[in-house]
Amino acid sequence: MSEQPAETERPIGVLIADDQSLIRAGFSALLEAEEDMRVLGLAGSGRQAIALAKATKPDIVLMDIRMPDGDGIAAAAEITADQSLPGTRVIMLTTFELDDYILDSIRAGASGFLVKDTEPAQLIEAVRVVAQGDSLLSPSVTRRLLTQVAATSARKALPDARRLEKLTVREREVLVQIGAGKSNAEIAAALFITPLTAKTHVSRIIGKLGVRDRTALVVLAYESGLITPGDG
Questions:
Q1: Alpha-carbon distance 217 to 133, whole Å?
Q2: Which of 72, 97, 160, 165 gives 224 a disulfide partner, CB atoms 3.0 to 4.6 angstroms apart?
Q3: Is residue 92 within 8 Å of residue 114, measured between CB atoms?
Q4: 3-state class (DSSP) for residue 72
């Protein structure tokens, strides 16, 4: 497990949204046991998740994709678009890692995915990773995502290509690595730079392209035509 934050830091506020009470209770007990986390609310539907997010302003929302009274994707889109919740990030909960709605979830602003039967330590680490501003995509989820992106991009023009003109040559190289699903450490090794430099490049790319996080950059890299399935 990663090192615990200093005691003076504010706990990570988490909202859990799932229509199964056992899932909500289990995740809540697990996260509440961590000194650096605090469960701010439990929601059983998409509409309730939106209302609780606005009321509690969590750092992380663990959001089930399929829920009654407003599905998780619609709820995630509304939460991530809400200007009063700039620091709130959404992790989608799926029954199967290769969910058919991965691309829709990314477009809705989700920062990552977790399968519901993930190991407790992985769930805790995932919350910390996304709370720090990183994204959470396992290799298998990334492959599924890129397959979906390729299928949709093949049927349309590439309007996002001109957005990349503002990037430097090095930043384009980094974006290619991001599109391949590589971590900052892996990008650093591939481009012979330090991990800190890689992280700086990633932050600058996110700022220049006006996207929420590196998960959105994966989609943009493919939709712009910068890379295609099979590259890397």
A1: 14
A2: 160
A3: yes
A4: helix
